[in-house]
Amino acid sequence: MLDENTHWACVGPNGAGKTSLARVLCGQAKHASGSIQRSEVLDTDGVAYVCFEQAKALCDRDKKLDDSEFQASAQDSGTSVEQAILGKRQADADFTYWVDRLAMNHILTRGLRYISTGEMRKTLLLKAILSRPGLLILDSPLDGLDKQSQSEMRTIIDELLTGDRPVLILCRQLADVPRRCTHLMVLERGEVLAAGERAATIARSDVSALMEPVLPSMGTLPGLAQRPYNLPKDGPLLQLKNVSVDYGDLNVLRNVDWTFARGQHCCIAGPNGCGKTTLLSLVTGDNHKAYGQDITLFGIPRGSGESIWDIKQKFGQIDTQLHLNFARGMRVIEVVVSGFFDSIGLYDDWGDKQRETATAWLRALGISDLERTGFDTLSFGMQRMVLLARAMVKAPTILVLDEPTLGLDGYHRRLILQAIDHIARQSDTQILFVSHSSGDMPACINQLLTFEPNEQGFEVVCQDLAQ
Predict the structure, then answer these.
(1) Terminal CA-to-CA distance of the chain, rounded, Å?
(2) What is the sign of the dihedral through the CA atoms of 306, 258, 443 and 269?
(3) Strand, coil or helix: what is 188?
(4) What whole-number distance in Å separates Cα of residue 265 and Cα of residue 430?
(5) How far apart are CA 340 and CA 354, in angstroms?
(6) How many CA atoms lie within 13 A of 160 on its CB side?
(7) Cα(11)–Cα(25) distance, rounded to whole angstroms?
(8) pTM of structure
(9) Which tens digit of pLDDT belongs to each residue from 321-340?
(10) Which of 139, 199, 245, 252 is 20 to 30 Å from 20 by CA-CA measure?
């Protein structure tokens, strides 16, 4: 029961049923049964639910409205952060107060497509707060935030919990439960495992077993696959010299020097909005700003006649956007096989050889029992493991992992890091691991590329951890 005297958090691993509970409370669940006793305030002011799916819906809408092809500049900044928050309302004292509290002044005029995951999280939170709902539901509010932003967000959540409206926090791990939460409800596979006062609930052995299960063993990796390209015998795989990226008046990268040599596994770390994803897009062929700059990919200067496919076939990639946008209605084996074609969905013919390789990778990652399972039916964490197998079937020279632990509970976070180390030990694939913090990275990392703040924005510093 949510009331002014208790502050609740709902805890459970990926697939426990937290999102389903939130959808029931919001009235979005179409096939729910049972009854909910709602206060008059809740009926009048409704429920605001802040989650990743909202971010995806906002971005999808913004893309549909993109009219850059009709603009003389060939650019459309799209919906600004301020427009997304206020809609048709005017800015008032509450808006100004929370913009300052969330440190968002610098992104208000920026388009939604040009903000980081963490900045999008703040945008959705502010929009929800200003709607003054009868109940505010925050789904994993610390996800997508760097360490400093997480600390600031914890303080803001504490403030919200002591306000005049009830707040329900959904968490994937016990460590993320706000300190002011007095009560916990623990979900397991759609059922309530435990509910009650915080300390007593955490002390239960069945809760500990659910939240910290033992990791499974990994299998032997498939043998090295024949790649349809040749790499130079020597020299670095990637090299950037004095590279800068600007979007109008916004400087994203400035004078970056970076060499990614043979045998290295690199963690690219830095706070929200510092330019990590932009840097990745330069080397994976997704960013036209690479042209005219001193960037060498696999021994070939960028812009010397190579095609996007020449570049992309050498990479395997996982990021949250790929995960959220992945085609639905597919079996796990089909999702993994789609990695041969770099397609979101499976539209090409595939044969026994590709099936054998896909099955071997599922076995190597300890998830071969999922082969015929529907991808949609898996928890978010197990879907991420399947996408890792998908990224590896074509034996990429470089595996790019952009925030691969984002959205995962503690168990699946440890599982994915274990799998990455397994790949680094037993294959010649090299790792590019992007994270908000250098503390959350696999053990194989031997190079650290950090974005450190300075007077002009951020300075990129490269450190060899093997020395």
Answers:
(1) 56
(2) negative
(3) strand
(4) 6
(5) 8
(6) 28
(7) 16
(8) 0.78
(9) 777 777 678 899 999 999 88
(10) 199
